[in-house]
Each structure stands twice: as structure tokens, then as C-alpha cells.
């Protein structure tokens, strides 16, 4: 519409004896006052309907406008379901346009009410613009900004000069915001900060559903509190119930523990978190990490529970100890950490490995207890007993000693087959009530068998030729190992013993009762801790789809000359253009009129229905799907 239309009319003038005329009226070509009387300018169709106490025309100062202002009652404007109030209005009848000044209030049914210092409304396009102390109220939240656009046809409000939203739980600040009335949804872009008494959320892009208090985070985002920091690049957070679900490079940082996973669930009131698929729990205080595919973290109890290919890894002097079990539980404050492993426990170190039904590790004392059918391999040596304890130096974190309780048995397979049993080799064996071992440079160096010690030793010369088999009983026996080879045996208080040639040593006497050689189970690599287990399939994760991006608030395809901007409006054609820097960086455009910043996390092939996403769930599946 062309600006500059002229409004002319004839009015009756009524003077009130006690009325003091404003200066601007004294200089008017025409003036008109209706004291406590309504003047209606309703016309057919979509014409504005305006009522005021006082109206006047000044074609010199305000060409084409009927100036209407408050005396007792504010100027009142109606149009197609919207109501406006203000102290001063300029009505441009030919353009069906009004400018409102002073204590402006705009109300649309019971859905929204907006207050500002200044406002404009175009009856032809049903487009409103407010500036100066803008306050928009909905049944669930309040928005404050400097300028606000409101498209009644789209039922959307928009700002790009910074705004603050307040609801019952949080305050949200952003540079750009868009409100969708039909969904009670806000889309915030750039410098988004959600402030709550308990935490602060920072995000590149955030969708917020005011009625439910649910927020969806897109792009690098953090949720920071006194006790934890959550990071994700796609997430869901319930600001009312203080819990959330996070995917894509997600992690939770505690004081001395960081939890990673393909998906994370976090509940702030209970300080509980769970993680699914490719889990890593990093313990910075004790230089250790636990991995698996499902974990639960109880912050208040300093407790972590992990299953599904669970493995605990502790770095010790440039070497690492790997402990695997069906279930691993870590409890206690950093200086008093306890690690427990249950069922089918396996332990691996470069020169040491073992198995047991369960394991208990006290990181404060450095004591590791292998419980239930324990077996330990050191090089070619195998040790068994009712239980096995390993002791580490808590300062150097190197292995210091070991102890085998009750029915201690150490065996080492001889390296050369026997000539009378071509397919079999003999076993060097030491047994007794208790076995003590000491480590030198993190390798097993000396073994002492005490009480009821017995031994069978295949004695060979430097050329490897068998010289005889020594079988004896002693009060105790000391064995020295070098590079995991048994090189020396010393018997203390020997009570019986004899060296036999192979031909004189019966086959049935060559093994002590209780020998159960399990060399084929020995763990040779860290991957062997999972040897023999059924293949594992990751849980299918329900991801959070990219947001569906509605068409742009403004239509850039409309030429400037086609824009319906009244001559008296403060707005220019440039104000009705979408700027590339204001477009969202993440999402799925619904059509060609929706803009996404180039080179960002978006796609035009998928179109998830994101009117309001349901609370994510995790379900089991026989297939793997780890897409965020």
C-alpha cells in the first residue's frame, strides 16, 4: 500500500468548562473533544473499531491521522478478536492502521496480553509491532524484550534484540526468540541461558514448551550446578522435575568423576544418573576408568554400578590392570574407594592375569581380594587356593605382594615333552597351606610356601636335558623366579625327599592331588578378559531428532514495494527481512521458506514431527542404533 493517504472528516466540537486544552490542540487546525462520550469509527469488514474520550485532526502535524487520546478512559481499539488500550492513538483510517503511545496494552482473548510504551497495528495484515519495555504474558510465562513482532495470521511472536522469558521454574535469556502460540512453544537462538536457583543451562539453540516446562537442547550445551556439569550436543530437560535425557557426545562431570555415554539420563533431586552404550566413567582422583554399556551413578552415595561388558582399568606405573566381571560396583569417597566385581571375574596385567567368582579392591589399602575359585597366572606359573590376595603400594601403585590362603598350589608347565609321554609335559609343582609372593619391579619374583610344603621339580641342565625329578616335603619352600621362569627352589626343614630318574618315577606320582592345570584359560591380552563370552549387542537408543524448523517469520520473497507498510509506521522494509545470522543453525526445514544457516547440523531429507516430543525412553533391541 502506498504511504501518504489523507483522512478528512467533519466533527462537532463540544467544550467542557473545566477542561484545560493541551498545547498541541491549541495549534491544531481542527480539534474535537468528546468528554465521557464514545466516538466510533467502525466500518464494514476488517476496519479498526476505535473508541476514545477525545479526538482531533491536525493535518499539518499528523496528515491523514485522527488523533485520539485519553481523558478519563484509555483509547480502546478492537479488531478481529484483538483488543488494544493506550493513552494516545493515531488512527490512519484509509490505511486501516493505528499507532499507539503510552501504557499500550494489547490483548488477544485469554491467550496473550502485551504491554509496551509504543505499538503499531495493521488491520489489513493483522501484524503488530511493539517497542519500549515490551512485556508479553501468556497463561504460563512472561516475556520481556525491547521490541516484539506479532503476526496474528501465523499466531507467532518474534524478537531479535534480546529477550527474557520467566516461568514458574526458570528465567531464559536469548538474543533471538520466537513464540508459537498454538504450541505454547518458544524457540531460542544464540546465547541462550536458562537460570534456575539450582542450575544454569547454556545452549546454542533451545526449544521450550512453556506449559510442560520441557526444554530441548541443540548444539553444544551445558547444565551447570554446584555439584555437577552436564554436557551434550542434543538433549531434553524437564525444568519442572529437574531431570533430563542427553545424547550425542554427552557427559556428566562431577567433582572427581566424569561419566560418558551414548545416552545419559540425569535426575537432579536424587543426584542419580544412568548411561547406556559405550560407557566410560573416569575417576580422576584415582587415575582409573570403568567401561561398559550400562551404568548407574548415585552421587550422594559415591556409588557407581556398571554392567554389560564392564571393565575397570587402573593405570599402574605405565602399565594397566584390567578387571572384568558381569557387574562392577564402585563405592566410597576418592580416598576410600572400593571396587567390587561379581560373577566370572577376570583380571589382566601385562605379566599377570587371573580369574575368580568375585573380587574386592580397596584402593585406600591397596588390597585386592580374589574370592571363589581364584586362579592367578604369572608368566608360565599358575597359582590356586581358596582365596587370593594381591597387595599394591598405594603411593607407587605397583604390585607389592600376594597371598594364597588354604590349599595353596603353584604349578608351572615344563617346557620340554617327556620321552615316555611324547604328547605331554611335566609340571613343576609347589603346594602347602599358605603361599606368599613378593614382586620386584611389578613382576613376581619370590614365592614362599609355608606349612606342609611339598614340591615336584623337573631338574634340567643348561642343555635342557632332564637330570631327574625331585619330590620332597618340607616345613616351607622358597622359589625364585626370573622373567617369569622358576630358576631356584630352596627347601626349609626338609623331612622327606628324593630325586628320581624319569624311568623310576611312576606316571601316577608325577602330579599332586589337587593339580588342575588351566593353562589354556590364561589371559594373554586385555581382549581375553571377554574370551568365551557370547557376542554382545548394544541397546537400541531412542534418539532426539533434529527440530522441525517452521517457515521463516518474515517472507523474504516479497519485494519491498509489495510490503504493506503504512507511511506513518516506524518500520522500514529492512525490518521485514530475515537475516541469515538470525536463522537457526540446527534443524530440518519444513519447506523452502524455512532457512537454516549453511554448513550446520541440519538435513532436508528427514522431517521428524516435533510439535512436542514425548519424554524419551530406552528400549532393548537386537540391533544397534546409536544415532543421536
From TrEMBL:
Keywords: Signal. Residues 72-204 form the Organic solvent tolerance-like N-terminal domain. Residues 565-628 are annotated as: Disordered. It comes from the Bacteria. InterPro entries: LPS_export_LptA, OstA-like_N. One of its GO terms (molecular function) is glycolipid transfer activity. The keyword Signal applies. GO terms for biological process: lipopolysaccharide transport. One of its GO terms (cellular component) is cell outer membrane. This is OstA-like protein. It comes from Leeuwenhoekiella aestuarii. The lineage of its organism: Bacteria, Pseudomonadati, Bacteroidota, Flavobacteriia, Flavobacteriales.
Amino acid at each position: 500500500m502506498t504511504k501518504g493517504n489523507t483522512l478528512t472528516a467533519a466533527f462537532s466540537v463540544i467544550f467542557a468548562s473545566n477542561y484545560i486544552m493541551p498545547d498541541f490542540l491549541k495549534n491544531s487546525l481542527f480539534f474535537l473533544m468528546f468528554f465521557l462520550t464514545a466516538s466510533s469509527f467502525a466500518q464494514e469488514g476488517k476496519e479498526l473499531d476505535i473508541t476514545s474520550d477525545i479526538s482531533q485532526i491536525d493535518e499539518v502535524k499528523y496528515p491523514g491521522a485522527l488523533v485520539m487520546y485519553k481523558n478519563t478512559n484509555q483509547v480502546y481499539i478492537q479488531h478481529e478478536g484483538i483488543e488494544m488500550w493506550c493513552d494516545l492513538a493515531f488512527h490512519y483510517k484509509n490505511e486501516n492502521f493505528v499507532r499507539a503511545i503510552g501504557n499500550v496494552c494489547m490483548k488477544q482473548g485469554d491467550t496473550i496480553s502485551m504491554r509496551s510504551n509504543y505499538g503499531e497495528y495493521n488491520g489489513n495484515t493483522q501484524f503488530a509491532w511493539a517497542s519500549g519495555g515490551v512485556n508479553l504474558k501468556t497463561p504460563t510465562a512472561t516475556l520481556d524484550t525491547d521490541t516484539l513482532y506479532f503476526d496474528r495470521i501465523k499466531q507467532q511472536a518474534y524478537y531479535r534484540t534480546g529477550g527474557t522469558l520467566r516461568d514458574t521454574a526458570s528465567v531464559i535469556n536469548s538474543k533471538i526468540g520466537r513464540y508459537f502460540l498454538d504450541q505454547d512453544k518458544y524457540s531460542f537462538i544464540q546465547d541462550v541461558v536458562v537460570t534456575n536457583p539450582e542450575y544454569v543451562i547454556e545452549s546454542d539453540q533451545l526449544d521450550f514448551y512453556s506449559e510442560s516446562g520441557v526444554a530441548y537442547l541443540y548444539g553444544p550445551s551445558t547444565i551447570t550446578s554446584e555439584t555437577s556439569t552436564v554436557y551434550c550436543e542434543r538433549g531434553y530437560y524437564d525444568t519442572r522435575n529437574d531431570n533430563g535425557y542427553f545424547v550425542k557426545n554427552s557427559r556428566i562431570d562431577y567433582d572427581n568423576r566424569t561419566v560418558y555415554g551414548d545416552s545419559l539420563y540425569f535426575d537432579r533431586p536424587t543426584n542419580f544418573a544412568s548411561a547406556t552404550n559405550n560407557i566410560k566413567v573416569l575417576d580422576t582422583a584415582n587415575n582409573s576408568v570403568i567401561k561398559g554399556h550400562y551404568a548407574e551413578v548415585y552421587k550422594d552415595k559415591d556409588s557407581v554400578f556398571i554392567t554389560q561388558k564392564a571393565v575397570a582399568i587402573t593405570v599402574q606405573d605405565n602399565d594397566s590392570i584390567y578387571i572384568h566381571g558381569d557387574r562392577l560396583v564402585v563405592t566410597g569417597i576418592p580416598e576410600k574407594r572400593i571396587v567390587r566385581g561379581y560373577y566370572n571375574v577376570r583380571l589382566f596385567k601385562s605379566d599377570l592375569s587371573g580369574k575368580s567368582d568375585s573380587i574386592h579392591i580397596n584402593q585406600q589399602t591397596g588390597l585386592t581380594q580374589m574370592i571363589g575359585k581364584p586362579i592367578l597366572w604369572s608368566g608360565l606359573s599358575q597359582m590356586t587356593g581358596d582365596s587370593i590376595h594381591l597387595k599394591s603400594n598405594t603411593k607407587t601403585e605397583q604390585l607389592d605382594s600376594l597371598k594364597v590362603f588354604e590349599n595353596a598350589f603353584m604349578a608351572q608347565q615344563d617346557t620340554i615333552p617327556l620321552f615316555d609321554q611324547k604328547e605331554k609335559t611335566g609340571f613343576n609343582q609347589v603346594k602347602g597351606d599358605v603361599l606368599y609372593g613378593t614382586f620386584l619391579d611389578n613382576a613376581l619374583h619370590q614365592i614362599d610356601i609355608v606349612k606342609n610344603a611339598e614340591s615336584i621339580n623337573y631338574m634340567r641342565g643348561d642343555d635342557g636335558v632332564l637330570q631327574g625329578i625331585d619330590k620332597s616335603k618340607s616345613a616351607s619352600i622358597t622359589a625364585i623366579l626370573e622373567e617369569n621362569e622358576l630358576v631356584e627352589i630352596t627347601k626349609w626343614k626338609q623331612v622327606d625327599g628324593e630325586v628320581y630318574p624319569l624311568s623310576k618315577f611312576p606316571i601316577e606320582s608325577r602330579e599332586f592331588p589337587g593339580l588342575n592345570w588351566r593353562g589354556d584359560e590364561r589371559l594373554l591380552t586385555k581382549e581375553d578378559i571377554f574370551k568365551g563370552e557370547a557376542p554382545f549387542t548394544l541397546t537400541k537408543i531412542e534418539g532426539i531428532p533434529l527440530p522441525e524448523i517452521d517457515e521463516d517469520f518474515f517472507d523474504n520473497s516479497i519485494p519491498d514495494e509489495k510490503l504493506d507498510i503504512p507511511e506513518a509506521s516506524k518500520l522500514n522494509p529492512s525490518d521485514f527481512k530475515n537475516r541469515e545470522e538470525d536463522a537457526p543453525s540446527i534443524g530440518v526445514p519444513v519447506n523452502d521458506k524455512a532457512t537454516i544457516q549453511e554448513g550446520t547440523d541440519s538435513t532436508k531429507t528427514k522431517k521428524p514431527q516435533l510439535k512436542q516430543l514425548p519424554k524419551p525412553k530406552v528400549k532393548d533391541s537386537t540391533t544397534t542404533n546409536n544415532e543421536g
